[in-house]
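Cont'd.
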Amino acid sequence: MSRADIIFLLPHLMLTLGAVLVMMAIAVRRNHFAVYVLTCLTLIVALYFLPKTASLPHNVGVLFVVDGLGVFNTMIIMLAALAVALMSYAYFDTREERTGEYYMLFILATFGACIMVISGHFVSFFLGLEILSVSLYGMIAYLRKRERSDEAGIKYLILAAFSSAFLLFGMALIYAATGDMTFEGLSGYFSAFDELPILVMTGVGLVVVGAGFKLSVVPFHMWTPDVYEGAPAPVAAFISTISKGATMVLLVRFFLAIDGFRFPVVLTIFTVISIASMVVGNILALRQQNVKRILAYSSIAHFGYLLVAFIAADELGVEAVNFYLVAYFATMLGAFGVVTVLSHPERDAELLDDYRGLLWSRPALATVFVVTLLSLAGIPLTAGFVAKFYLLASGISTNQWLLVILLVVNSIVGLFYYIRIVAVMFDSAEEREARPAGYVGNFATLLILVVLLVWFGVSPQGLIDVIRNLVGVG
Amino acid sequence: MTLIAFIGILMAGGLLAWIIARWNETLSRWIALTVVLIDLMWSVAILVSRRPDFSGTDWLIRFDYPWIGRFGIGISVAADGLSLVLLILTFFLGAVSVVVSWREIRDRVGFFHFNLLWVLAGIAGVFVVIDLFLFYFFWEVMLIPMYFLIGTWGHENRRYAAVKFFIFTQASGLMMLLSILGLYFIHGINTGTYTFDYFELLTATVGTTAGRWLMLGFLAAFIVKLPVVPFHSWLPDAHSQAPTAGSVILAGLLLKTGAYGILRFVLPLFPDASRELASIAMTLGVAGILYGALLAYGQTDFKRLVAYTSVSHMGFVMLGIFSFNELAFQGVVMQLVAHGLSTGALFVIAGALYERIHTRDLSLMGGFWTGTPFIGFITLVFVMASLGLPGLANFIAEFLILNGAWQASHALTVAGAMGLILAMAYSLRIMRKIFFGPASDMASRMSDLTLREKVVLVPMTLLVIFLGLFPQHVFNASEKTVKDILGVVMRSQADAIQNANENP
Amino acid sequence: MTLYAFYFLSFLAVMGALMVVFSRNPVTSVIFLVMTFFTIACHYMLLNAQFLAAVHVIVYAGAIMVLFLYVIMLLNLNEAVEKQKTLLLKVAAIVTGGLFMIVLSAALRTAETSYIDTSVVGSARNLGKVLLNEYLLPFEAVSLLLLAAMTGAIMLARSRKRIKPAPNVVGMTHEREQTKTVVHEQ
């Protein structure tokens, strides 16, 4: 490790430091606010230490590739984590459970995700994934009084362990065949083939299974609605954004390195997964009455959409993936932010009835929710629209008409359930019980997210420029 | 910049009206009205000042500003005579909508005006943009506020109607987006310039098969909006459930965007595919005329009846557009204006009746003439306009369309003309049911038009009569546009004939 | 000689694994599991990975299995109370498992693996060198993984009753009952 390596890994080191500091702070005295401030500071400091663009890319040994893709997504993940942290304070403050450990796990999970997006080696890939998963077990089951929190935690634990086993086995098979675990080395190995040897193919397949679980794409999606439902709302936001986003970036890096879509079998696998995710996610969402479950299925469908750009895997495709992730992060965080704010100390605001007449009883909050739902549906003036446009553009430019048309058809199906929530909010208001007082952090976060959603929807060029500068393949 | 200002004023006014309404609802109404009137005056002033040189080669007003450079998307707006006429119609009916809602909308006034002005902004945008991405953008912008208008302030079955409207238009709009993207990439790959600019894309060379599919995508959006039978089923629900202002805007303006889209985009971008499809499209148009008229005759709900007459009248538009000659095109433009006025007015009357007797059921009405002759007279004028009485604007429009269509297809023209007879039947039925016949219990509750309603309806009446007597004003404005569009189609036809001759 | 040892150990490992699944008595299962772990440790020895073998025995066969036994005995799980899976699930499991096995055997039968010289890896010395040089960073990151796991485990394992009740506990219980009814209704 040279001095330069340390400088490039400073954001990650800061997160580590933050986790340790939080642990020590808890040991000295339990003070929710102090721990919360410490967490936010950690993230801000880590953001501050992000490497400068001009110095990229930089390889830290064979393990980490600090390039534009990595730095950009590290930034997004940290910003998203900051948003989740801001929401978490209000959420856990109203629930009289111990709160310190949550922030520790939270920072560690963020650390894991940040490791994933810069990893260029199977070891760092797996390690990042495991740190993320293991931290999430605790976070999901954090509210021990909830009836479904244990179920959600156990479900995630078992399935995540299972999928990790697949992932590891896949990596082992690839290693057995190639004798290499760096993406760079693998790229050389893969370029020699026109058709994959069956051993490597099996290995890639198993890696896809493992990653597919984290992405919660069909058919590895079964856990998603239950876990979202059982987990505290901020944690659900974390899973649906950071955990999935990091995995997606990692897949992009891996498949770009091995140029995976040259091989028809890989293309077929992802096409099938994409179609299945879109269709199943949307159709199952139609029948839900629980907002958290709707968001869960919606996130499944959205990753089906995202795979369209992923499959394109050219310059436009990678841009599209990154833009989509930003839009999707902001949207999902906004949606779960509203759920968080509305949640009752004993129960999350997850039934559609919790939202009845919201537009008249709490117009500002409802407006936020409407904007996020419209963004999820991909309606113009929101970031979701530009993002979906990007996907369509990348799909059409690579002539994947089947996927593109299915994407459009599914967007229409998706409209039904997003609009249904909007419609419920428009219902006439009824007498409702007083809600818990608001927290400044929550409202500031939501305000910023909404402004971002509209800003990226109206004037996306700035973000596109940033992405192109950092991520551009060509 | 003027055109951007039109839209910007509306959007800003909408926001302002929403915010102000927290303190003063009346002020919010006045703001909305002022904003729309400013736009109206301004656009009329442009029309009047530019009147002599509609024949020039350039577009009247143009404004370009790069927006999303990555995709070659620009904020490009331009107006020619056709756009300007439709803009004026938009602002006029916009002002009407604000005024008719004065008493009808009592709750959430601010949000109502916000939605109203944003719908208008979206529609105005659709009429002036010349960047295809931006076109889709505004196409959607007018959708969401409309959904809220119907879903929040509509009648008893509003939720269902709003969702149906939204899904229909959104689904078809996405088809158009696909086509736009397809065109964008085909042109980009061919020439190396990736742009959504309308004029640039006009020069795109698209293969025959690709052209057909792309055209169908565009057409899907437009014929759902227009609507053409059998894609009309959202319309009766949306029209009858919307509040008065919503119905006026839906019938008077939203339907026009479909026709405008076909004229502005489908024909010039895909002249070959359009010609191939002409006979089918004209048949669908005639089917719409007859089907709409027949169903209109069978309705008992006043607003639903008027909604079906819209289906019928828009059938004429479809018939005229795909006849490909100047007479028919001019008729179409006139029909857009005339139908906007007459149907808008009928919805205003329906709203006025509903306010008084709280029903839209024709069977509960009757004998209102004696008590309230003024409202009866106004209704008579617009009913006559709707059935195509000479001297009123609709007559000119339908006469020209049929005249033009005759050159294209005799049989279809005859069938379409049958629609006029049916129109007579349903129009007279309206008058008989509401104003004549035995006086119903409701008659006692009727009162004649208030000053506010007169302020709306009298100018509309005068306009319909004025345009019926002096239609040339509209024709002057739209002549250049119509000839240009026709020119493109004719050139493609000539090319096709030449090709056929060269390679027999 | 090595080959025969491999076959013998593999046979034991597979048999042991099967017995873990099939035996009705949890304690027997655990004992067979220990046996499986030992045979796998022996496999490591065959691959010249003595350190891994030792760690495997100490951690898995030693620590974890002892804990397992304790838990099972304390919970007194002697009678199998697990409910039967439905036929559909069984068939689905067999089909999936079978397909997976076919894919794997096809993949492994014709596989050409890259040659790795086992004499330079595996021993404690070599492992230590690699871990503390080339893989120093992940090696340290593992400590974070353990930290996360430990925190999570402690957090989950703490008793629910020890949570300090909130001051307004009366109002809360009332609301909690309401919430429960809502949950049951759906």
